[in-house]
Design a protein that fits this description.
Keywords: ATP-binding, Helicase, Hydrolase, Nucleotide-binding. There is one protein chain. It is built from 29 helices and 32 strands. The chain has 834 residues and is an alpha/beta fold. α4 runs parallel beside α5, α25 packs across α27 and α27 runs antiparallel to α28. 55% of the residues are buried.
Amino acid sequence: MDPLSVTPVTHSVPMAKNHRSDRTLSGPVSRVSPGTVLDRLASGPSRAARITHTEHLPPREGRHAVWPDRIRAEVIAAVQDAGIEHPWAHQALAAEHALDGDSVIVATGTASGKSLAYLVPVLSRLLDGAEAPNGRGGTALYLAPTKALAADQCRSVKKLSQPLGTAIRPAVYDGDTPPEEREWVRQYANYVLTNPDMLHRGILPSHPRWSSFLRALKYVVIDESHTYRGVFGSHVAQVLRRLRRLCARYGASPVFLLASATAAEPSVAARRLTGVPVVEVADDASPRGELVFALWEPPLTELHGEKGAPVRRTATAETADLLTDLAVQGVRSVAFVRSRRGAELISVIAQERLAEVDRSLARRVAAYRGGYLPEERRALERALHSGELLGLAATTALELGIDVSGLDAVLIAGYPGTRASLWQQAGRAGRAGQGALAVLVARDDPLDTFLVHHPEALFDQPVESTVLDPDNPYVLAPHLCAAAAELPLTEEDLELFGPTTEGLLPQLEAAKLLRRRTKAWHWTRRERAADLTDIRGEGGRPVQVVEAGTGRLLGTVDAGSAHTTVHEGAVHLHQGRTYLVRTLDLEDSVALVEEASPPYSTVARDTTAISVLETDVEIPWGDGRLCYGSVEVTNQVVSFLRRRVITGEVLGETKLDLPPRTLRTRAVWWTVTEDQLDEARINPEILGGALHAAEHASIGMLPLFATCDRWDIGGVSVPLHPDTLLPTVFVYDGHPGGAGFAERAFHTAGAWLTATRQAIASCECEAGCPSCIQSPKCGNGNDPLHKRGAVRLLTVLLRGAPENAAEAAERKESEAEVPGVRPAPPVQPGPPSP
C-alpha cells in the first residue's frame, strides 16, 4: 500500500467538541495510509456503524512509451525539465494521432496526464508556426467549461513553455480579461484559452477581428469534454459547428483534441459534440495508488420532520464533521457539495468547530463556489496551491476548475448524479501515485440510500454514456440565427448543422428572424443574434447580489435559480458570512441583502402544472399506457420554509408572491385505469398519495438510468389529468426543449420503475421518509404521500409491462413518418423561461 502523504501538524490539539472527545492527536502527522485515516474517522461505536461498505481499489503500475519523433526536440526538453522523462503510453498514442491530423479524445482517469497528451503536439506545432515569416503560422484554441480551469491551464502552459521563449504566447480571453488586454490577445496570442460562453458571445460574432487567428487555427482543445452533456452540451455542439464553419471560411480545418474523464463510448459522444470523426484513446497507462472508497450513511436522529417522518442527520452536518476531523489530522481534503449554499454551510460549520480546537486551524478551511468575484476565486486557488488551505468545501466549480494536486482525501456530500462525476471527484485525491481516501456521504433521499446499501450499483457498473442532442430545435434555432448573423447561411450549411435545420429555416423566416435573399438566409434584426440564447440554459441575466447598506457587489446568482435562492426572506451565504435577502428586483436583476445571523436556512416551495402538447410514442403496459412526447410546464414559487441549520427541523413557512414561469420540454408519463386501481386496492382517498409517492421515488432513481441529476428533472402526478383523462405520473426534463433524460427513462422504463418499486418496498420506515418517497424539492410539502399504495400501484403497473419495453418503444418509433426526427416547435425570439 502506498503511503498517504499529509501536511504535518506540529502541535498537540484536542478533538473538536461534539466530535470524539475520547482521544487526542499528539505530535506531527505524516505519511499515513488512507486506511488509517478512515479508521480514525470511524473510531467510536456510533461512527463505525455509519460505514455501510468499503471498497479497496488496488494500485496500478504505469506503462511508459516514447514521444513520436515528429515532436520538436525543444518541447521534449521542456517536458523533461518539468520532471517528466518519458510519457505514458496513452499520452504518446494521443500525440501521434494529433500529429497525423486525426481528431482524438483521451478518455482516461483523473490525474492520468491528459493535459500533457494534447499540450505536447500543440506546442510542437505552434513552435513550427512561430518560424513562419509572419510569426503567426499556427494557432490553437483551448476551451474549458469554467473560467478557473482556463486560468489554471494558462499558468501550466506558461510554466511548461518558459524554456521555449516567446514562440509560445498563451493568454486567457474571457469575461474577466480587462478590455485593454483583449486587443493584444487577438493580435498576438497563439494559444488562446477561453470557454464556450465567450466563444459563443464574444469571439464568433466578432470573427472579422479574429480572422488572422482563425485562419491559422490548427488545434481546438476541448477539456473536460464529458461535462458537455444535456442541453448545455447540445448548445456547445452547435457553437463548435459555427466555429468550424467560420474556420472553413478563412481556409482552416482545425483538428479537435478532447480530454474526458472515463466515459462510455467516448468517441461516439465526441463525434456528436464536434461533428467530426474522433479517434478514441481510453487505455489508461498511468500509475495509480491505492484508493480506499467508503460509503457513509449518517444516523437517524430523534427528531421528526414533515408528517412525523424520522429525520436522518444531514449530509451537510456529517460532511462538516468529517472535514473538521481531517483538518485536525492534517489531511489535505476537499469536500464536494452539490449546492452553493451547502458548500458555504459546510465551511462555516467546520470553521466554528476548528476554532474550538485551534484558532489557526479555522483559517485553513474555506468554501469555493460559482458566483464569487474573480479576485476571490483567484485568492482561494492560490491558497489551495500553496498548501495554506487544509480543507475546502466546494461545488463542481472546483471539480472542473483547477488542478488540485496533492490532496489526500475527498468527501462527496451526496451522490453527484452520475458515476462518471463520482469517479471524477474521487480521483482528485491521490496525485503522483499516492494512496487516497474517498468517502461518499449519503443524503437522506431514495437514490443515496439505495446506493450506500447496494454498492454494486456504484462499483460493478460502467460509467454512463454522455447524452446530448444537437438537433434539439430549441437549441438549434438560435444558433442558426447566430450563424446567419456571422455569415449568411447557404444550402451548403444545412448538412453541417444537422437534419432539423431544413425544417426550422421556414419557421425562422415566418418569425421574421431570418430573411432569404437569393440563395442565402440573412439575420434581419438590429440586436445581436448571439443574445437569443444562454448556452447554459440559465434563462436571462444573472441576478446581482448587493449589500444594501454599502452597495458592495457580493456576487451573482443564475437567473433560473433566483426565485428559489434569493427571494425575499431567503438566507444567503457568502464567504462564511450570512445575509438575509431584503428585496428581489426581477426587472433590474438585483437582490438586496443585509448581514444577519438567523438560526435557520431557507428552502423554497413551488407548485407545478403540466399539459400535453404532443404524444410522440405510446405503448401499452397492460391496460395502462407508457408515453413520451412534448409538454408545457408552468411553475411558481409560492412560499419558503425555515429549517434549523444542523438538524433540518422545520421552524415555519412564509408565503411569497412571485410570477409563474413556463417551460416547454420533453416528458415520459404513464397512466393507469380504474381496473388497475381496483387490482392494486387503491381507493380515491389514497390515490393522490400513491401517485405522488411513486413520482418522487422514480425521480430519485432516474439518475441510475440516465446521465442526469434529480435537480435536472421534475415531476407531476395527477389523479385525473385533463389531457389523459386518467391517473397520470409525469417525469420531465427541466430544460427548454428537453435534454434526453425523459427519453432515456422511456427506453429503460421497465428497469427504472422496477428499481423504483424496490427502493420504496425495501425501506425500513413505516409510512415514508426522505430515504424512499419524500423529496427535498417537493413544492407541496410532501403531502399527500402513501408509501404502501405506491408499492401496490407500481406492482400492478409493472405486471403489465412488455417483456422488452425498449424493443416495443423502438418498434413504435420506427412506424413514425419521420424516424428519429420530432416535429420542430414554434420558434420564439428568446429562450423559454426555465
